[in-house]
What does this fold into?
Amino acid sequence: MTTADLHELAEKIKSWGSELGFQQVGITDLDLSMHEDALQRWLDNQYHGSMDYMERHGMLRARPQELHPGSVRAICVRMDYLPQGARFAEVLSDERKAYVSRYALGRDYHKVMRKRLKQLGDKIQAYCDHELPGTSADFRPFVDSAPILERPLAEKAGLGWTGKHTLLLDANDGSWFFLGELLINLPLPTDQAQPEQCGKCTACITICPTQAIIEPYVLDARRCISYLTIEHEGAIPEQFRKPMGNRIYGCDDCQLVCPWNRYATPTPEADFLPRHPLHAPDLLALWAWDEATFLQQTQGSPIRRIGFERWQRNLAIAIGNSAPNPSLIQALQEKRTAASEVVKEHIDWALAELEHKQRAGHTGNQQVKRLVRIIEKGLPRDA
It folds into this structure.
């Protein structure tokens, strides 16, 4: 292939990516060696918590060419997921409701994006077969499904810069998007990275309920509500239960306070539109689910992978963080006998919290009230 051929193909790839529903497509080489020291420090400090797979794969994450031998480029893509009418403030401020991270309200993004990336790869291969005889496009798609440093690759590909909360930020659309990659063997021209634009802002660090962002660009997953509610098995440490509030799956706080997210555009992707039972659900209604209902209601959702025990554990904490209510206390007591030991521990904690608040008077979660005030001052457009 000539240089002209490669440049023409790169432009077509970006056009095909747009047709497939990706909001942005960038191309980069695979050299992530500059991230190896930071990755090793993060692992040495045990910031990955119980995610043993992070340590097991080690430096492979910074060497994507070893994941698919022969690859020389990564085609990085972005797909927006911010739902229109996200109702952030309404749900977070209502202790009777459960808050689900907005990325998980619709269909599992892994399946949606992987299918589209495979289609993009097939388009590249078909183009090579018809327009560039003798050229073979050997590719492999990834969507948060293999040991690969996705954000550093996307940053090099020009999709954004890494914010102090460790998420990727784009000046036009904030951080409400998923990332995916197509490793490929073609030496396509690469794109330029965006400049870092966080400046002196530390809103994400300040607002984090559990102070999981221990310094700019460094996240201790063991303190992160997303990790605790999704990845962590067993009992959640008591020190983090109250700060969790009514968040039962994930946490969006560091994104909600980010000034760049005021410019985010709601997604046009139908697959990411909220499922009614999860958009602004009542805690009591979710607590009433049995395992069969949980599996049925979360079919095709990323939530399903946490399993019913973690689901009940998270709900018990949210109920314990709500205002005292006889119906909630009765519901907890009724489920206690049949609950697993892990869930039973959290039910007991929740009952003790509700009893304490009954005696002392309940004034609500001040941290959540502060967050809601910030959200209401700078909501994303149409959110």
